[in-house]
Amino acid sequence: MTPRSTQAYQASPGDAGRHDRAALELRGRTVVPGTAEGEALVSTATISGWGGIDPARGVIIERRHPLYGQCFAGRVLVFPGAKGSSGWAGFFQSTRLLGTAPAAMVYVTTTTKAALGAVVTRVPTVTGLDQDPLTAIRTGDFVRVDAADAGHGLVSVYPASPHVP
Known about the structure:
Layout: E1 24-32, E2 34-42, E3 47-48, E4 53-54, E5 59-60, E6 76-79, E7 82-83, H1 88-98, E8 104-107, H2 112-121, E9 125-127, H3 133-136, E10 142-149, E11 152-158
Parallel strand pairs: 2-6, 3-7, 6-8, 8-9
Antiparallel strand pairs: 1-9, 1-11, 2-10, 4-5, 10-11
């Protein structure tokens, strides 16, 4: 599999208002407060930090990962959780320092690696959603993460195209 893109996705202000289909809303718990929006990159497999991503480019480099070669920089990264060593957080912190961090993160399983990684990356992050984000969100959907406070995180999903069963 070859990389589709290694360029960071840049959402334009007001992109969410351009979508004519109604948003699907998922409610969950805020891990890191803030608001961000962008194109979703959805992984059905856990992501490894050390050896799994290239922080300088914001690209998944784990050869057997379904998203091998995909760029997460500036996108809303939706994934099941973190795998690997405690170095996970350090690699994602490097993405922040290098300007290749995701715009936001949405994950399913909270572990110390995933939570600490979200905190040091300093991007809006939501977990514990009332629907499975791995089935509700598809790569290419426009997603707005509103993690305004610790108790209430809202993920609004604007489908890129109609979801076909």
